[in-house]
Each structure stands twice: as structure tokens, then as C-alpha cells.
Amino acid sequence: MKKNRFGGRWATFFLAAGLFSTILISCKEKDADKVGQRTVTDIINENPEFSILKEIMHHATFSDALRTQDATFFLPSNDAFNKANIASASMITRMSVDSVKWFLNSHVIKSIYNVDSTLPTDSMRTISGKKIKFVKQEGVVNVNNAEITKKNVSASNGLIQIVDSVYVKVK
Fold first, then answer.
1. Domains and CATH numbers, the chain
2. Is 37 buried (19+), middle (13-18) or exposed (0-12) by CB count in 10 A?
3. How many CA atoms lie within 13 A of 66 on its CB side?
4. What is the DSSP letter of 39?
5. Could you give the CA distance from residue 132 to residue 79 in angstroms, rounded to a whole number?
6. In angstroms, what CA-CA distances link 140 with 26, 61, 143, 161, 163?
7. How far apart are CA 100 and CA 106, in angstroms?
8. pLDDT for residue 32
């Protein structure tokens, strides 16, 4: 006499199909689960190397301006401020908010430039209108005599070039 295995086969099929569909559904990535690339503002806020710049940026309520534009950012680190005898942000935040915004915009160019390939060989104007000049010698790039110490740090809204000194005079 033959055994009826029809019920066992269907049960195995449904169990395998259910397991497969559960795996497929659970592996789908939702937009809310995705971690996007950080903006320049996020990098400044999260990195202790930029604590002085962070304080200046917040004083001028400039955070959102650094989130929205595609640009090249020449960011001075805390060491750069110390090299310019600026020990704390208060030396800059005591200026008018417009002067602080001018100072910050003097470190931003509206287009994205990779230091190794697309950086202009002459001078340009920053968002504030300040003229800056680039000099490239033996792999070292300077912007207004400030050496770019970390090149082409990627952010979702541009490229960051970290400079070793403040090339804008604080008024």
C-alpha cells in the first residue's frame, strides 16, 4: 500500500516559502534606516578639532548655510586658530554678526574643487568676495599662505580642505 505524502510535501513547501519571504522582507532597507553622508556642519559639530570654528558658526547662526550649498570649504582647525593667536572663539564672536558671517564666508568657494585635480592654479574669490590665491609646490598646496594639511575630505554638500592657519585677518 502506498503512503500518502501529499500533505507533508505541501507543508514543507509553505514552510520554505514563508521562510524565504520573511528573509526578503526583513532585508529591505527603509529610507528612515539609511545613514546619509554627513554635511560640513555635521563634521564641524562632531569633530573636537573644530571646536573654535563650531562656536563661531553657532554664534553667527551659520549652521544651515553650511548644509545647503555645494562648495569647497577651507576650514581652519583649532591649531590654525592658535597659530593666529586666537585662543578662543570669543575673539571673533565679539565682532558683529555680519563680520563673523563675512569671516566664515571667506573660507568658502561656491564650486567643488579637488585639491589634487581640479583646483585652479591662480586666484579666486570666496563667497564673501575675498580674493584667495593657490600655490602648489611638490605636492603641498597653500591657500593665501595657509597650508592645506588634510585634503579632499568628502561631505554630502562639498569638499573640505583643512588649513593650518587662519588666512583671514580678524578685524
1. 34-163 (2.30.180.10)
2. exposed
3. 30
4. P
5. 21
6. 49, 33, 10, 12, 11
7. 10
8. 46
